[in-house]
Amino acid sequence: MDAVQPSMRDVILSMNRFHFFSGKVKYDRPLLVQLVDGRDYQGGLTDRLKGIVSASCVAQLLNRQFKIKHTSPFELLDYLEPNKIDWSIKDNKTISSNIFQARLYHLTEYDKGDIIKRIDSIGDILQMHCYCKGELYKVLRKRDGTPFEWGVEFNRLFKPNPILQQNINNCKQIIGGEYIAAVFRFQNLLGD
To answer: DSSP string covering 7-20, please?
Structure first.
């Protein structure tokens, strides 16, 4: 499928995923749903979060409501909850599985200039179901021409749920002062 143009690939994959005669919803507001459902490779947690933030930026550019369906390998709501916008899906009946209402899109930062053309060509399809990957937010610009910022967009979307926040508070209390966090990534070097 990598040899197929991205827009044609999206149509083909949509035909495989959606139904022609069922699955319609009575939901009339344009919507972008970021999928993290185990049906496509999306990397580790940081990669998935970058994809979510990038999809949120695309939704802002298209003036669409934004939702996250993060069910694999865990429910995102077990750790993070909506902060300034409600991205949670409370009722799956609002998510269409009808090909005339929804399309599947794979968006990455490697599309570069083509991503804007693809976004503009989406038109008025009711729901975009996206596998947004990587740091796409870095190649997008807000309507005023300024870049999207990772920290601002992440904090707009997320805050720790109460259990995670309590664990964070406990760690801060144990540390008892200022601290610096360091993360080491050994991608495929340790046999994983």
So the answer is: HHHHHHHHHHHSBS
Judging by DSSP bridges, how do beta strands 127-133 and 31-36 pair with one another? parallel
From 1, 23, 19, 22, select the one nearest 10 (Cα to Cα).
Answer: 1
Looking at the chain, how many residues does it have? 192
Q: What is the DSSP string of 92-157?
A: GGGS--BTTTEEEEEEEGGGTHHHHHHHHHTTT-SEEEEEEESSGGGT-B-TTSPBP-HHHHHHHH
Nearest to 60 by CA among 159, 144, 125: 144
Provide the whole-model pTM.
0.80
Cα–Cα distance, 57 to 116 (Å, whole number): 12
Domains of the chain are 6-159 (3.40.50)
Q: Are 65 and 30 in contact (CB under 8 A)?
A: yes
Taking the alpha carbons of 39, 31, 13, 135 in that order, is the dihedral positive or negative? negative
| Each residue's pLDDT tens digit, 21-30 | 566 666 667 8
- Helix, strand or coil, per DSSP, at residue 49: helix
- Nearest-5° Cα angle at 75, 90 to 101: 45
